[in-house]
Amino acid sequence: MKAFLKHLLGFLLLFIVLCAIIEFQLSKNINNNHELQYAEVLHNTKHANAIIFGASHSTDGIRPAVLDSLGLRFYNFSFTGSNPKFNYYWYTNIFCNYYQEPLYCIYAIDWKMFDAKRKRRKYEQDAEFFPLWIFTKALFNPFQYDIRTLLSNRFCLFKYNTTDNLQYIFNKKKDYPPYVIEEYVDGFLPCTLDSATRERKFGSSDYNCLVSQEMVNYFQNLIVLLQEKNIKIIFVDPPEYGGSREIYEAMPAYHVLDSLCRINLIPFYSYNIKRRSFINENRNLFTDWDHLNSKGSQLFSNMLKNDLKTIIRRF
Amino acid sequence: MFFNSLDFAIFLPIVFFLYWFVFNKNLKLQNLFLLAASYVFYAWWDWRFLFLLFFTATADFFIGKQLDKTEKLSKRKILLYLSLTFNLGVLGFFKYFNFFIKNFSTAFSLFGHPIHFTGISIILPAGISFYTFQSLSYTIDIYKKQIKPSNTIIDFLAFVSFFPHLVAGPIMRASTLLPQFKVKRSFNYESAKDGLRQILWGLFKKMVVADNLAYYVDNIFGHYEQFNGTTLIFGAVFFAYQVYADFSAYSDIASGTAKLFSFRLITNFKVPYFSRDVAEYWRRNHISLTTWFRDYLYIPLGGSQGSTFKMIGNILIIFIVSGFWHGANWTFIIWGLLNAIYIIPLLLLKTNRKHLDTVAQGKLFPSIKEMFQMAFTFCLIAFGLIWFRSVDISHAIGYIKILFHPSLLFESGITGFEFTTPLLLVFILLEWIQREKEHVFDLVKLPIYARWFIYLLTIFVIIYIGKYENQAFIYFQF
Questions:
Q1: Do B20 and A14 touch (CB under 8 A)?
Q2: Mean pLDDT score, B466-473
Q3: Rounded to an integer, what distance in angstroms lies between the CA atom of residue B14 and that of residue A313?
Q4: What pLDDT score does B473 carry?
Q5: How high is the pLDDT of residue A204?
Q6: Which residues in B lie closer than 8 A to residue A163 (C-beta atoms)?
Q7: Please, is B68 exposed, middle or buried when counting C-beta atoms within 10 Å of its C-beta (0-12, 13-18, 19+)?
Q8: How far is Cα B108 from Cα A18, in angstroms, rounded to an integer?
Q9: How is chain A split into domains, by residue range?
Q10: Which of residues 437-456 of B touch A (CB under 8 A)?
Q11: By the CB < 8 Å criterion, does B17 face chain A?
């Protein structure tokens, strides 16, 4: 038995050393925008007093630097694929523990946000970026968090375990396609797809989606939390390509959002319904049908800045 | 609990440690601990069915005791029928009830008397086909006076529910496994090392080979009407390897795990796709089930003795029953029937025992004739497996129709093969090189640094190419 355990431990040690080397290389070479967003929330360098929540359509679509000219300091904390449940956990566990209380929260909503099958980001999936104490706290709370997801996302070795990511072990690659990390500014990151991929991704929109009551509840709870701290919430619905006002108006998610706005007195700027513009009709301003490209995000951010001027003054 | 899950990765070291360091002083305690660990392993899936497992095994334990006590043939027969009725009744209810209800209903409708039977929603308990057969073989062996019954219920329950082979075999006989529970087990360094290697090879087969192939197989079989014949050939070949890699992986992990506890399970697969005829294939594939049917059905029916007509009948019966054992679906029955049809000419020509050794033994390459024989056998098996994989008869017929359509000569309409095909070829090559060994990682002749390099490489291949969606083993559903 002794010899067996000795050999086994020796082998495991070698394996752990190799894992540590790979982990080090991957964590050094894989840079993505979410890591930089976590760096901001944990180290508070911009001291933003206006934050942006949302999913990838907001990361790619809203430029905080443009909105800064309103006299506030904006930071975009939108995470790809995030839903209200993710935002609730992220806000209560990460943001509240590290960042200063903002004055404003621009919540970039969309009609898919209550559909857990479409917006699938889980809080546990960000375990890679968690400070050790937050990770440990979550690890010892198996009834609230999915431990398997938490563990497999803590280490780059397991999180980025695809053959495509093998290059990052050996190369000092900075980009994590389709993003160019150098273009990251205050949480905003334009999506840069080559034209062939863009055409393939464009496809057509499937407007069918579900409204999960669980997601609505999390969203309501988050609104209550923000409003309790006197953070002023503004709903913004970034423009999508195509569609029509009627299509969007008929969507169940908008009915939920309308009622939440009425109950909680939240201003709602929908750039797919009431504020539709030339942007919705110009395909050259989009990466795919629901993500603005760099040029589109510049135009939209300017448009949003002008619209926010009035509301912020009124607040 | 799946072997390819994080739960099992935590469960196994804990059981190993407690087994060898806490309960090693007392054999009874060690067996009791194995029983408890096995029940935890089973309950992880659904604790409610633990009672079924417990009652099935307990009933056979007491029937076995009564069988041993009495010499009166009529009473012994009653006890045997009781065991058969109980075990097959449980299996029949959970696995076949809805199938029979549905088919009775269809039959009555065909004769102009439509009767509407309503099926009931039944969950199929994991491993029921495996543990009922194992438990059943115990009472049959006692009836035939081939073994003595177990004295203690704990040993017997531990034998039936021994977690490495509980849910998907190999189906162990009481004569082979039960005695291992009766003797004090000492830790065997070489066996434990080999067990770990076999587990690693099993994980590679499951997570890298089977689950990567599963992606294409599910896609091709699920939307077969959208593809051309070439793609459907890929689908059939991939499924043949998926089902083999998946099931043999389970057997390897089961066997490797058992070795860690100083138990030996029988070898369930011996590179079946390197068989030169279908008879050889069935001697190498799912050996524990094949031999079970041979010993408890084929031979009692008369085997190959008697008239040609009777022999053909016996072959048809065991293959149809074997197909039905896999699932309550006509596709499995047709699959069984096809295999019987493949074997009958060999029996008639008396060439069914022509290939008892491993192909090209001691040589690196097979002869042209052997290559042709292996390819032909594989084609027959892969064709049969189309029925095995299809949802129903019309699905299988539709698939086969397109398979033999002129589009067969066209380029495949699915992408991603450029990665999966070389992966499969590497797997076949490794199996070929090590075909005379128990498993591919039987590498004792290599120096330690070379072996460790291979093991580490395999682990990283599993991490980077393996699938982590906790895909259930195919044979769990049986």
A1: no
A2: 71
A3: 63
A4: 67
A5: 60
A6: 464-465
A7: middle
A8: 66
A9: 28-120+184-314
A10: 452, 455-456
A11: no
How far is CA A54 from each of CA A190, A277, B347, rounded to the nearest angstrom?
A: 15, 21, 70
Domain boundaries, chain B: 6-184, 190-276+355-477
C-alpha B238/C-alpha B273 separation (Å) is 13
**In this predicted structure, what is the pLDDT of residue B268?**
93
**DSSP secondary structure code for residue B150 in this structure:** P
Chain A residues lying within 8 Å of B196, measured CB to CB: 8
Binned at pLDDT 50, 70 and 90, residue A160 comes out as confident
Partner-chain contact A157 B463, CB within 8 Å: yes
- The confidence score (pLDDT) of residue B117 equals 66
Residue A93 DSSP code: I
Do A293 and A190 form a contact (C-beta atoms < 8 A)? yes
Q: How many angstroms separate the CA of residue A163 from the nearest CA in chain B? A: 6
Q: What is the pLDDT of residue B308?
A: 87
Torsion from C-alpha of B283, B284, B290, B292, nearest 10 degrees: 100
Whether B391 and chain A come into contact, CB under 8 Å, resolves to no
How close does chain A come to B440, measured CA to CA in Å? 19
Q: Euclidean distance between the first and final Cα of chain B, in Å?
A: 16
Please, are residues A304 and A67 in contact by the beta-carbon 8 Å criterion?
Answer: yes
Task: Determine contact, residues A308/A234, Cβ cutoff 8 Å.
Answer: yes
User: Residue A105 forms beta bridges with which residues?
Assistant: A51, A233
Select the residue of B6, B455, B464 nearest A166 (Cβ to Cβ).
B464
Runs of H (alpha helix) within B267-307: 278-284, 287-293, 299-301
Minimal C-alpha gap between B465 and chain A (Å):
6
HSE (CB half, 13 Å, CA atoms) of A127?
Answer: 24
| Per-residue model confidence (pLDDT) at position A173 | 60
**First vs last C-alpha separation in chain A:** 73
Q: Which two tokens stand for residue B418?
A: 């450029």
Identified catalytic residue from B113, B165, B223, B326: B326
- B391 contacts: CB under 8 Å, gap ≥ 6: B331
CA distance B20 to chain A (A): 9
Identify all chain A residues contacting B456, using CB atoms and an 8 Å cutoff. 14-15, 18
User: Which H or E run contains A134?
Assistant: helix A132-139
CA dihedral angle for residue A10, residue A12, residue A16, residue A22, rounded to 10 degrees: 100
pLDDT of residue A62: 94
Q: In sequence order, which residues have a C-beta less than 8 Å from that of residue B49 and are 6 or more positions away?
A: B42, B123, B125, B126
B143: pLDDT strictly greater than 80? yes
Assess whether the previous peptide bond of B170 is cis (omega < 30° from 0): yes
Q: Which fold has domain A28-120+184-314?
A: Rossmann fold (3.40.50)
Task: Kindly compute the dihedral angle of the four CA atoms of residues B243, B247, B249, B250, in this order, to the nearest 10 degrees.
Answer: 150
Residue predicted with more confidence, B172 or A191: B172
- Please report which helix (H) or strand (E) contains residue A286, including its range: strand A286-288
Whether this prediction's pTM lies above 0.80 is answered by yes
What residues of B are in contact with residue A7 (Cβ under 8 Å)?
Answer: 193
Which DSSP string corresponds to A184-253? -BTTB--B---HHHHHHHH----------HHHHHHHHHHHHHHHHTTPEEEEEE---SS--HHHHHT-HH
pLDDT tens-digit profile of B433-458?
Answer: 999 999 899 888 889 999 999 999 99
Q: What is the mean pLDDT of residues B66-91?
A: 90
3-state secondary structure at position A176: strand
- Our answer to whether residue B355 is catalytic in this structure is no
Which of B1, B19, B464, B470 has the highest number of chain A CBs within 10 A, making it the mutation to test binding with A? Answer: B464
B371 touches chain A (CB under 8 A): no
Out of A1, A151, A158, name the one closest to residue B20 (CB).
Answer: A1
DSSP string over B212-250: HHHHHHHHHHHTGGGS-HHHHHHHHHHHHHHHHHHHHHH
